[in-house]
Amino acid sequence: MSHDENQGPRALQPETMRELDRRAIEDCGIPGLVLMENAGQGAYLVAKELARRHALERVLVVAGRGNNGGDGLVVARHAHNEGLPVSVILTAGPDAFPVDGDAAQNLEMARGTGVRLIDGRGLPPGKLLDEVGLENTLVVDALLGTGLRGPARPPSDRWIEEINRRAPTILALDLPSGLDAASGDAPGPVIRAAVTATFGALKLGLLIGRGPEHSGELRIVPISIPRSILLEALEREGRTR
Q1: Span 7-240: which CATH code?
Q2: Where are the beta strands (DSSP E) in 70-134?
Q3: How confident is the model at residue 240 (pLDDT cuts 50, 70, 90)?
Q4: Of these four, 23, 24, 52, 165, which has the most CB atoms within 10 Å of its CB?
Q5: Which of helix, strand or coil describes residue 122?
Q6: What average pLDDT does this structure show over 159-186?
């Protein structure tokens, strides 16, 4: 984790991180698909370490329909390619991703490489999780990303509640689903993660409000945001707080 010895960990507002993503794509020529691949591959390394630490033998990714779900699909593909038993519950179904988006491309790659994909629309979340089985399983929270404002809405709120109730160990991608990435507010149910693999840089909401109690251990996953613009943003936001 990046630290300033006098100021502690440095973090970004979520809209700043989105602007860095945009600059990486538009100004630096780094495709969004590459950023997502780097995020998911780095998160998979964290997942593998966490599974080993807790003697977990399987991985279950619970994926929403946005880019956070796409990151989870990358995690699942790398787990599958290394022979780790993995399944993905697509909470909004397999047709919910925007057809021209990076997440949809990763859905096709996961399907093409043989990852087990489960349509999550047919059963209540608790019943489906019981049917899939969570014994000896690391659950990867890939439901909601940094764009959430206000409480998680149905059915995501029910997925969060049931995952918290049933999962022995949870890895959150970027931030725990249901947490406000800017303020650390938790107006509704929020994932309680053992570890959060956050992409590019810490998000401010992980460090303030209720962020620390929900995020667990924080791990920063580099995603190829150019160092110069990342450091510039960290310094600028550090001066404004």
Answers
A1: 3.40.50.10260
A2: 86-90, 116-119
A3: low
A4: 24
A5: coil
A6: 97
